[in-house]
User: Fold these one by one.
Assistant:
Number 1:
Amino acid sequence: MQVYEAPLRDMKFVLHELHNDDGFGNLEALAEFTPDLTDAILEEAAKVAQEVLLPLNRGGDAEGCILENGVVRTPTGFKEAYAMFRDGGWCALASDPQWGGQGLPESVNKMTEEMICAANVSFSLYPGLTHGGTTAIEGHASDELKQRFLPKMVSGEWSGTMCLTESHCGTDLGLLRTRAVPQDDGSYKLTGSKIFISAGEHDLTENIIHLVLARMPDAPAGVKGISLFLVPKYLPKDDGSVGPANGVSVSAIEHKMGLKASATCQLNFDDSVGWLVGKPHKGMEAMFTMMNTERVSVGVQGLGVGEAAYQSAVYYAKDRLQGRSLSGVKNPGGPADPIIVHPDVRRMLMTMRAYNEGCRAITAWVSRALDAEKHATDPEARQRAEDFVALMTPVVKALFTDLGFESANLAVQVYGGHGYIAESGVEQYVRDARIAMIYEGTNGIQALDLVGRKLPAHMGRYLRSFFHPVSTFIEANKADADLGKMVEGLEKAFGALQLSTATIAERGMRDPEEAAAAATDYTRLLGLVAMGYCFAKAAFVAQTALKGGTDEADFYKAKLATARFFFDRILPQATSAFLAIKSGKASMMALEAAAF
Amino acid sequence: MQVYEAPLRDMKFVLHELHNDDGFGNLEALAEFTPDLTDAILEEAAKVAQEVLLPLNRGGDAEGCILENGVVRTPTGFKEAYAMFRDGGWCALASDPQWGGQGLPESVNKMTEEMICAANVSFSLYPGLTHGGTTAIEGHASDELKQRFLPKMVSGEWSGTMCLTESHCGTDLGLLRTRAVPQDDGSYKLTGSKIFISAGEHDLTENIIHLVLARMPDAPAGVKGISLFLVPKYLPKDDGSVGPANGVSVSAIEHKMGLKASATCQLNFDDSVGWLVGKPHKGMEAMFTMMNTERVSVGVQGLGVGEAAYQSAVYYAKDRLQGRSLSGVKNPGGPADPIIVHPDVRRMLMTMRAYNEGCRAITAWVSRALDAEKHATDPEARQRAEDFVALMTPVVKALFTDLGFESANLAVQVYGGHGYIAESGVEQYVRDARIAMIYEGTNGIQALDLVGRKLPAHMGRYLRSFFHPVSTFIEANKADADLGKMVEGLEKAFGALQLSTATIAERGMRDPEEAAAAATDYTRLLGLVAMGYCFAKAAFVAQTALKGGTDEADFYKAKLATARFFFDRILPQATSAFLAIKSGKASMMALEAAAF
């Protein structure tokens, strides 16, 4: 059974209690968003997620999207839900007020994203992609394009897409073929085919604004010849209303493993009118603006599904009666004990719980940095925030989506045979979560981004934004009698991370394949240390609260217990990642391709 | 794209070269099955898998089974394929010649099972369940029942099922409610409902023989009051032909995550005539006879799907052009290099390869023991073989199905976005592989069986059948200049396993929850050591062959490379498993159920 109640208490914990000393300072520009106000927003968001979006999740999966006569019909209820969502102002929480957004801090926005994804990840893509699009337009488009498109997109009246992939090129966009021919009036005409376009066509909005990567006739080969264009489904009239169709057609929607209520389209552009966004041949730069925003959001998708899977598993583990506890009957009135009494079921539940709480704590930290890179007054703090965001974006994307998928699978395992049946709703989480490890750059690409771009950038400066707070915390707390064992675990994993960093830097200088061979394990190792740091800090906060006296002792005790579980059972993965990194590329690359 | 070619060379390697010194001796009773003969059988099986079953796999998934008017229709082509399979004598390779079987060694039979599962795991369940049924009947039924049912089942004319689960009880069969009322003629009348019955109803055979767990009126409560009954769909006439219907009806088939071409049925028994198999109230014993056979086979399912996923990923990795190799252009004539050049893609392919080769080597070892427990002339060898089978059955089931699922997911990851689309066929491997971690006892239950039953049995005697060859091998080879590093890795992991065993024994004595809390990690650890032992031995054999001169140098070199990769990249997981075990139950069990 799909069960979800937004984990508001934990969200408030990571927002208001955990990262106060993160070094980004008070962000005066966001002072109006007091804890009281943000908590009220989170509570409202929880209602939308739980009451509007969650009830459509199972049916959306079963029904899927349907393409008929060139029009995509979303599943029953999606149109009404989207209208309610849009009218409630949820489309553009974090957007600039200049375009009608509410200018909410990212730290709050990401928590609402988690809720929306937990309740209905397919639904989340319709407003989600729009948000990526507005970011690219805001960052790179002309004022005229901004005036014309941003207000409608920010309000959610029009939606957006990112049109990158073609059938022969995904990761390697340098190969793309869609052409953009300049016209006398400064516009372009685009022709080509794109695949895997989320929300490429649907019935939720009156217009869809495509951001399309294409090549001009004089473009240099490869990624240096790619430009970004804004191509609306319908050309807007001067009064802002929707005008004639623009030669964009949907030739098919994909039959996918999951995410069935999200329309994944093959789009044809046939002499479609578009306008350049950013500079000619600098499309990759503009694209990365939206891609980076999206990457953190895709990570949060993983967390959202992981949380929903966890709660659904807890529900079942308390409800399902099988066997008796090894430590004595717990449910003497019933024919058996609920399966939550069994250690191996606990192991699964605690693992999911630790993943979710750890990822949520990182989310709050990274989104504090997202806010600080915009609003910090101290230039050094702003720089540190930028560095930290750059470093952590691939980690958040890869780690959270890997763990979200793992949680979804653990939920199925808790349900046993019943979890394999569609009726239970939990196998949907597995299918829905699987894509997040792939899109917006596969997790392997995230790892290469981390190791190949982020580590060496500015002589390793990005990494300092992470290493510094971690080592400071370890030094300050390793003598703490209660936290000691956790800090010791953190210190050991952090040592392995430092050593791995040096190894990769040294070997990678000689041979870039050495860095690439270490990338995935290194990304996991860094992610585990980040989680470990957050859990050790959380334990510190919890312990302080408990010592000081609190009427929320249960919450803080549970936080401590989950932190201990993390150090006992999850962080040891750091050791195997370290050993794998150390082994180098030799055995990985030994076989000739023909030997496979 | 679903690609599969049976790995015959590796099968011959694990059958004929790897385990010659396994201590079970020459099995004279199987002397007629010379390598030449078994290889010829494997080659024929490969043809059936590749040419008959593989082509039906994708369509079977898309079409699924259909229930109409109480009759289940299998997907297009299944009926013809089954007829060909049955007429070819493939239903009963390993069955006793007394009942029309071919008496093939299990070591060969399991390799054919791997092929069948790789090509079409849904199909494999129809003959697979029959085999479990015949084992129970052979072991426990009266001569009259054997005479009446075994020949038809062994030939595949009739198929079988295992009817255990009811909606409120799966793992905890003590709760089951199906009743069996004795009749004057010595038969019983069964009434009740069963769920999740694989092959419970279909159109492949003229009769279906259900083996049903039920409770007699005078039965004691719990598992000690369960008996096993044989209940045919149609009552056979005296001449062996099919007679009147027997009150068994199918009320629904499940809509599942995968395995869609296998009919998973809800069956109602309504005063259905059945006969007791084994002694009254001793149904669990008889059921475990078929369950244990099935558990090894379910493990092999995981291996089969893992191998198909691996080959499909290799196909794509050689075909798909994206990006350029970091060590210089490899495909100068093309627009990009095939993705197999990229280290992170290699990491995924080598991981799958190592999993498959490691599991296949264990399969050959365990099935040699299955043969030896039947045919070894030396009673000590027979005892060792029995011990080894008892020990390894839960390991094979849990390890292989976990790794098969992981391989399926890695294949999707190699395909990227294309892997998430049904068209590619690889996401089907993920959905099909997922169930094997659940059915025939969840992998958590396997782990409890290992730690709670198999370790303590006979004062730890079972474990000696495994520890002895491993420690002997380590002692004999640790000084070997070429193998040294691998043996060192094995020795370290083996040390961790020994220490974990002692820890679990010691703590588990005081508190059984301590053993249960360690179970899953211990199972993985033991599995990794078993794989490590097989890889170190394989490296030894390969090295010896290369030193002696061979015209198959490529095969042996690849074997060495895969072994090195295993020790570099996979075996390090043993360390994290060890640390997790060491941490004990405290943090896992700390939270009150209400705190979840």
Number 2:
Amino acid sequence: MDDKLPGTLPGSRRPGRGPRQAQEIYRATLELLGGGGYDALTVEAVAARSGVNKTTIYRWWPDKDALLGAAIVQSSLLRFDVPDTGTLRGDLSGLVHRLVGLMTGEATSGVVVAALAAVAGRPSLAWLAREFVTDRLAGERAVFDRAVERGELSGSVDPALVLDLLAGAVWSRVMLRQAPVPDDFADEVVKVVLEGCAVRA
Amino acid sequence: MDDKLPGTLPGSRRPGRGPRQAQEIYRATLELLGGGGYDALTVEAVAARSGVNKTTIYRWWPDKDALLGAAIVQSSLLRFDVPDTGTLRGDLSGLVHRLVGLMTGEATSGVVVAALAAVAGRPSLAWLAREFVTDRLAGERAVFDRAVERGELSGSVDPALVLDLLAGAVWSRVMLRQAPVPDDFADEVVKVVLEGCAVRA
């Protein structure tokens, strides 16, 4: 039986299972991050908010960065199911919808903003972004594998590049420009990525 | 003679010309932002660093946000010439190269990171990102207009959507994932956006 948690976070000592209260600890961690940014996040405050003893938290995560990394990668708050609609277009559109939901949702947008701001400002947290993207890409790769099997996509297409384009477009629209997201936004960006925008010769 | 500076920043009182030392003030503003983040930026520190009297700065910009907005939009540090290579592919690839240069360059990457972090964490600075993007889009629109004239692009393609995809991909790769940027990155993302990645029926 393989009971390792997904992802390997630098600095975290992880035995076979997470603590029973892991999701509560993660939720408290992300709420503190979303509420007051990286500087407001302390292990003491997480302990107070989650009702879990500080010693227990330190037993699992040596410092707040290790805890933040675990929370961002493993919290159910930031997870979504990978779509399986039967077409590449439907799956990618579903992914974009979910990303828009994460970046605009009442419970999540503040957390995502704070996480992005924390990572963007701190090279010491670069591993955290890489860890998150690697973890998500591992799940989303199935979308691309199925599309190759169905003959919709060449095996030479780099899933990471396509996801850079799609996730980046959502970020640019929602986070950077803070512009409205029209109902057809997901379909439009996916259409460009699948079909291209150039006039075909 | 139209001597208005480009862009209209909320809260800034702008007479016909900027102060003679505008670029020095902008440079000091962005260096302080890049060095210590938004919190380290004060009008007092900008005055000390640029050697321009505080009163002069306040005469032009009522507070640090107005000054930061002017610096981000108008500083020559963050400006680049819009490419005109004769093809849409060449122009878009040139834009991506310039964005990668901005986000990785020694003199600029810290400033861009700090600006992104400041904006991402502060809804009160959303206007600043919009102002920046509107200003740049006004220049970059020429790339799309020329492509439509040459018959490379349909007039129905939304330039803002294409730039969300391209600029977002650079941000995702460089800033979020902090992953290496291969030499062919610009060509590859532009290829997907122009031709699509789906197998053509």
